[in-house]
Each structure stands twice: as C-alpha cells, then as structure tokens.
Amino acid sequence: MRKHFLGLFRAFAMGVVLTGAASCEKMNVKSGEPDGDGVNVSLRVASFEQVPFGLSRTRLRAVEDVCSRLNYLIYDSDGHRLKQTVQEAGDEDFGQTSFNLGKGHYLLVVLAHSSSGNPTSTNATKIGFTNTTGFTDTFYYADSLFVTDSAVKLQLNLNRIVAKVRFIASDAAPATTSGVAFYYTGGSGALDATNDGWGSVKSEQLTETGQGTGRDYYDIYTIPRKDCDHLWMRVNAFKGDDLKTGTTLSDKVLDSIPIKRNHVTICRGFLFSPVYEMTYTLMVDDEWDSDTIDFQF
Predict the structure, then answer these.
(1) pLDDT by residue (tens digit) across 137-161?
(2) Any residues with CB less than 8 A from the CB of 221 and at least 6 apart, and which?
C-alpha cells in the first residue's frame, strides 16, 4: 500500500466507538475470509462534522438531510475492494449496515453524496465520480479496521472533502436558454481514500444545470488536489438538450478561481454578457479558518 497508508487515519479516530476486543489502529491490512455466516462488523453513520455550505454551524444532522446515497467499502492490503454496500435515501436501514469479515486488518471507507450513481471504487486510491453521475456535496470516512473474534460496532463521523463554487450572476441568461454548462479543470472527480480523501486525478469536470433562466445562483463541486488551489472554467449558456448537441448562446472563460476544501468560493459578476469584471470572495466560518482570498483579473 502507499506510504500514506499507515499514518493518514489519525485524524479520523474521533467518533469511533468499539466494543469487545476489536479496535481501529494504524493500518496494516491483511486479507481475510469471512468466518461463517454471521455478522461481526456493524456500522452506523452518526454525524457529519462540518461547516455547512450554508455557513451556519450544525454538527449533528440526520443522514437523509445531508445525502441521498451511501457507499460502504472494504479494501484489502493492496487497495482492492473486497466488499461494498450501497444505500439510497428511503431505504429502511439508511445509515446503518453490517459485514461478515474474517480475522485481519482492512481499510474501511464510507462515502456520503447525492450523485445519481455510485463512484467507481475498485481501487482505494482512485474512487471516482463521473460527469454522467454528477458531482455533489460529498463526505468521507476512512480508517483501518481490525477484526478479531469479537464483534465490532462503529459509529462514524464523516467529513466534507469537496470545495464549492457558487456563481451569483449580475446578468440574466439569454431568454432562450435551456441550460448552463460549467466545464472546469484544476480539481478532481476522484479521491484517494489512503491519503485523507484528497483529489487523486486531474479531472476534466462538466456540470450542466437545467432551467438556465430565472435562477439566483449556480453551484459546482470539486474534490481539491493538494497540488492545485484554483480552477480554470468555461461557462456556456446553451439551447437544446445538452451542451454537446445544443446551440451555444454565451461563452465565458474564468481563470484562477480560488478553491479550498470545506469552503465556498462566491463569484459575483456578469456571467452571460460580454462584460469581464467579476469578483471572488472566499466565505469562511472563522471558528475554523479566518483567511480570505481576494482575486482580481
């Protein structure tokens, strides 16, 4: 496993409750086969420890108020997925699940999001969402899992791993607009579960919103990478079913939009007309971080 594998989970230790002789410790994953047919690992998503993107603090929220889809993933020492459980909002047991695992060490990963489908997750270092399934507010938990003869019961706190950019347009989209497309690079649609959930690929992300006219704002999400703190973006209003087959009505290119994990970047300005003044302010909760990014071009 990667060098980060042994030390990265320390930050996630709070909020984990164990019973019996099982414990979460430094990762030293070994493959194991299930012992019998009984359940020996039980999981419950307990809270989302966060600064909500609405910028008002709420620590404990019901799972269904935060996401519509949960992925519970078990990996072996090579980062290969052994097991997966998928839950959707409305499921009777949404937020709780269980596994039967053999004795040994594993990597446990839980993702909470609202994409229309599941991320690719066969490799723990590259768990990826696609343009088709969409990029949404996303929360993450990862830690080593040590299974012995005793039952394991975990309560999990998930942390946000995305940045959000909110566009508040000073002008209206063209009257015939059927959608607005945001194509952007600099972030990632995939995360490395062995490296604190940071973005692991240089993605080309595309988010399309319907009903382009009459909206107060547009939101896009990305998983920040450690080696990049800004986005390059092209914004197009279009007429038709989608940007690829439709007619482009406006074209705006924005460079060096600052981003930061668990933060919102507010972009105000002329998004659709040929006026090139736009200001950027990073909104933060100063209990967590008091820095402000000023961007001018």
Answers:
(1) 999 999 999 999 888 998 998 999 9
(2) 135, 136, 137, 138, 162, 163, 164, 165, 207
